[in-house]
């Protein structure tokens, strides 16, 4: 067997594999001998079929199978030994119909090679890492929400400014039919509030969706429509009032504190506010870190320059999926996925350059931490190591979960790297200011 490589350019190569008779003849002969022992051909006893007849009936298919096995093994071994970092999979070059009566065969494979590049984390302009704090306004609003949630409900005959209104949004054309409880301060405009004041159970109020809520996400949740449908939605919906209640605020006393945090977990309003602040800011860290991860990723993709073997990858996409694509569709799919592919290469380069690895213990530890948090939400604060190990073993028995958790571990390792080496500036602000700066007034 002889293997040669022609480098077309830095990103494309062709590997040629020449297979000679001595590479396959012994294996083919052995398989045919085994076939002869078991062949069941009318007119001959089992094991007594002439070898010539066995070769005539099975020879070419056995030869083709064996050559293909040798070919795949040789190509895989060659790529590993030569340390060739290929993108996609090698593509066999089209050739005329193979003459299986020949003693030797030649096959060619196109390769798309991974580009060589370096990654610079030190951007000229510093990337912002937000330190989001729970300010007094947010904490006071959360205290009031808790008081409302645990307050006494009293039925009302008509809607007042502070009423809780349960009703159903409907629009037949868009198949909207969603029942929920709202308060008037959730709506964006005063005009909407005026339509509700004085209304009674059974009344039907017609509303325009445009400008009904401050942002599309609130509208999406209220109407239970997909995000894309909620964006810019401008239709009329009806709201049928089913129930009107007022809610007296619960007293901020020990009975309420014990309901929220267990006996004597919190003993004063100041401790309650401190607990709310602590819990909120833990969640804010996740949002802040995710924003930093997204921003650094965007920076790296935009500023790490390298070429890709686009023509090869487009051709590979044509045949890589379950259904073969035409050239135009494959080109469109490549353009959609190019940014993602670039980041995968950048991510791999960062992991290699900084010796970042993900092993099974990392995945298992992450899974146990996730399980521990979920159990805490249901009041199980001190699970045993055996409980955690048993649940983690079940979770990690699912390959999709292993893949998902592994991706989380990679993201965390990269995030730690960015915090250490990227050009980052800290910026402290309230959650309200963070949402306004990052997402605007949508």
From TrEMBL:
Recite the lineage of the species. Answer: Bacteria, Pseudomonadati, Bacteroidota, Flavobacteriia, Flavobacteriales
Q: Which organism is it from?
A: Olleya namhaensis
**Annotated Trigger factor ribosome-binding bacterial domain residues:** 1-146
Q: Can you say what this protein is called?
A: Trigger factor
Q: What are the GO MF terms of this UniProt record?
A: peptidyl-prolyl cis-trans isomerase activity; protein folding chaperone; ribosome binding
Q: Which family does it belong to?
A: Belongs to the FKBP-type PPIase family. Tig subfamily.
The EC number(s) attached to this protein equal 5.2.1.8
UniProt keywords (A-Z) are:
Chaperone, Isomerase, Rotamase
Q: What GO terms in the biological process aspect are recorded for it? A: 'de novo' cotranslational protein folding; protein transport; protein unfolding
